[in-house]
Amino acid sequence: MSPNFKPFRLALIQLGSITANKTDNIKHAREMVLRAAADAKKPDLIVLPEYFNFPCSHPHLPSSAEKISFTGKPYDVAETQSETVKMLSGVAKETKIWLIGGTIPERDVDDKVYNTCTVYNPDGVLVAIHRKVHLFDIDIPGKIKFKESETLTGGSSTTFFDTEFARIGLGICYDVRFPELAMIAARQGAQVLIYPSAFNTTTGPLHWELLQRSRAVDNQVFMAMCSSARDMTANYHAWGHSMVVDPMAKVLVEAGEGEEIVFADVDPEVMYSARAGIPVTEQRRFDVYPDVSKPRV
C-alpha cells in the first residue's frame, strides 16, 4: 500500500556547465543542491538532471562509468567506489532532504554500462536506483541521430520508492515515450512520477510538454521532468524547460533554457479532486484489455 499523500515542495535543478571534467561537474552539482536547499521555503525533495556528471554525447562516456553495486540491501556508502554516490549521499545528509541524483553512467559487475538514477533519503542512505529501460535510439534525417544502445545496456525493471509524503515513480528521459512504465507506477500507488531527462532541441519543442501532460492526465498523477541546461557549444543541445505538471495536466512551473532552479508545491487535493471528478481509475475495463501493472505469467 502506498503511503499517505501529503503536501510537499519539489525543486528541480536545471544544471549547467556540464563539461568533460567530471570532478568539476560533481562539485558544481553539490553547490546547486546546497543552493536549492537554502531557499527561503526549503524543499522536501530535490532533483538533478540526466547525465549531470558527464556529457551524454561525449565519446568517453563509458570510461567515466562508476561502480555502484546496489542490490537493494543496506548499502555502505563509505565503501562505495563511486565518487558521485559519495557526494550525493553526503549532500542529502547535510541538507536533510530527499535527493534524486539525476543519472550517471554505471558499470556493473558484468562490465555492462547503464544510465542509472540513484535516490537518497535525508540520512544520506541510498534507497533506490533506476536503470533507464528504453534506450534513446533515434534517427530523424537532417536533424538528429543518436544511438544510446551503442554504449549502454537497458535496464529491466520498474522502480518506485516511498517517502513520508508520497510514493515516487521513476523513469529516465526516453522512458516517458512508453506510457506503460508510467501506468505501472501509478497503478502500484505512485502519486508522483519524476524523470531526470535531457530532451534535445529537435524533439523538445514538439514533445517535451506534450508527453509530460499526457502521462499526468493519463494516470491522474503529478509529473516532473528535470533537464540539464542548454549549451549550444556542446555536442548535444539539451532543450531545458524543466517542468512540473499536475494531475489535470496544468503546468505548475517551467524553467527556461539556462541554468536555473524551479520550485513547485505539490498539493494532494488536486489529485483527489481530479480522480473524483473524472474517475478513470475506477472505470478501466480489464475485462477488455490487460492491466499492465499485473505480474507477467
Report on the structure:
- The chain starts with 7 loop residues before the first strand and ends in a 14-residue tail after the last helix.
- The protein is globular, with a radius of gyration of 18 Å.
- A hairpin with a 3-residue loop joins β7 and β8.
- It contains six helices and 15 strands.
- It is an alpha/beta fold and 297 residues long.
- Strands 1, 2, 3, 4, 5, 6 and 15 form a seven-stranded mixed sheet that branches.
- The mean pLDDT is 95.
Task: Please outline the helices and strands.
Layout: E1 8-14, H1 22-37, E2 45-47, H2 83-95, E3 98-100, E4 104-107, E5 113-120, E6 126-131, E7 137-140, E8 144-147, E9 159-162, E10 167-170, H3 179-187, E11 192-197, H4 204-219, E12 222-227, E13 243-245, E14 251-254, E15 260-266, H5 268-277, H6 280-283
Parallel strand pairs: 1-2, 2-3, 10-11, 11-12
Antiparallel strand pairs: 1-15, 3-5, 4-5, 5-6, 7-8, 9-10, 12-13, 13-14
